[in-house]
Amino acid sequence: MTDLRVSLIQADLKWHDAAANRALFEEKIQQLPATDLVVLPEMFTTGFSMDAPALAEEMDGPTVTWLKQVAQQTQAVVMGSAIIKDQGNYYNRLLWVRPDGSLETYDKRHLFRMAGECEAYTPGNQKLIVELNGWKICPLVCYDLRFPVWARNTPLHYDVLIYIASWPNKRRLAWQTLLRARAIENLAFCLGVNRVGTDANGHLYAGDTAAYNLLGEELYHSEHEEAFTTITLSRAHLEETRKKLPWDVDADAFTIL
């Protein structure tokens, strides 16, 4: 049974300054111990912005190139989302980049209409499940957290659910509550990586980057300040809990149309 080492980085993003943010995260990543996966926040190069035409990069642009370099240097998968232009559309695209340079993508499905995200970006329609060292991982983005059906783990398709976010301080109770709920209801580890600081729109972010085990017990929590940590997810806890509490067997079957 192999455990999984996951590094979570909570940072104060520089508004609309991709180069500065890449430098910021590179400095923090260099301080990490050996790890299997590095998790960066939503729109980690720009902050949560609706100015897609001015900020979007192509898939062969500097941010994807940088992610490949960092993954190769750390020999870890690196993930985060960025503003990407692809075939004439703009996406809030999660990038899952491996040390060998290969990558997978997930386009945020639930776009935050209260900020106009649904007008600036095209929604995705495919969930992503990736494998890392024998672990199945489902990465999602921010507002996706409010929609449990999209994350429903019936049958057990994944072992770890990860949300990256720009989740504001004024709704932090929902963030904390729903992360824990997703862990419990899906019989999976649930991790959430959020940013801190105040953006150019005046929105304050408390961070509340956190990790929960299958029982909803807190493994890590950091608020208000920049922070990074590497946690170890226990394969024994995963297998023993699912064997002892197989409530997935009684879950309702359904299909998303």
CATH 2nd-level architecture? 4-Layer Sandwich
- Major sheet: 7 strands, mixed
Q: Estimate nothing, just give the exact number of structural domains.
A: 1
Radius of gyration: 17 Å
How many helices? The count is 7
Beta content: 25-35%
Average per-residue pLDDT, rounded, comes to: 97
What distance separates the N and C termini? 36 Å
For CATH, the homologous superfamily is named as: Carbon-nitrogen hydrolase
Helix content: 10-25%
Structural class category: alpha/beta
Give the overall form.
globular
- Low-confidence segments, given as residue ranges, are none
SSE order, one letter for each helix or strand: EHEHHEEEHEEHEHEEEEEH
> What's the CATH topology name?
Nitrilase/N-carbamoyl-D-aminoacid amidohydrolase
Q: What's the CATH C level?
A: Alpha Beta
Strand element count: 13
Tell me what you see in this structure:
This protein has 257 residues and is of the alpha/beta class. The protein has one domain: Carbon-nitrogen hydrolase (Nitrilase/N-carbamoyl-D-aminoacid amidohydrolase). The protein is built from 7 helices and 13 strands. It is globular.
